[in-house]
Amino acid sequence: MSSAPADRPLDWRALVPADLDIIYALHRAAIGEAIRPEVVKPESRDFFAGILDGRGQMQGVFDAGELVAYGVLQRDLPAYDDPRPHIGAPADASVAKLAGASVASAYRGRGLQRALIAARVGLARPGDILFATSAPANPASWINLLAEGFAIRALVPYYGGHLRYLMVRDGSSIVPEATRLVLPDDSGQQMALLADGWWGTAARHGDEGAAILYVSGQRGT
User: Fold this and answer.
1) C-alpha span between 3 and 1 (Å, rounded)
2) May I ask which residue range the UniProt record assigns to the signal sequence (predicted)?
3) When you count CB atoms within 10 A of the terminal residue's CB, does the N or C end of the chain come out lower?
């Protein structure tokens, strides 16, 4: 797959069941042969078929008719994916998950991952709690989610025990009274801060790479 000229517009549309083959092919190509579940959760063909059959929605990005990126918004969630117990939300609160995105290698660096986050936020229903999970070792994911208004609210084992940030966008905010910068590989300090009610709200870049700005303070809406 060759990259399109940067000034050539790409086409966006909702994906449908007839797109299943190209979606799964892009997913497999994007995660590569050496699957690292501690970084990216591999999905089955049946997962995408279920989303397209009504369990959620998918947005696709095309170049000259070729699928080059997609994003998943999932509404019908398995029990293990329920974020509400981790964030103190009511059991009947409406939730939707940004359940993964893939961008073809030739199209990376063009802001498509962040644009797909924004597109799926735009699909939210009033009152939805939007959430995503992101591996600490996958900064491209959590940096873009932070930039689109998601906050790290928990660090919990998912998908076979691999640690994931639980990142939430629910209309609430926090007025910082104290801040702390933490590297993503310091899981112990992050868990302690999160247990005390701190949120991870922004990415910062320094000599040691990307770090996360944690804040504590008064909550607002």
Assistant:
1) 7
2) none
3) C
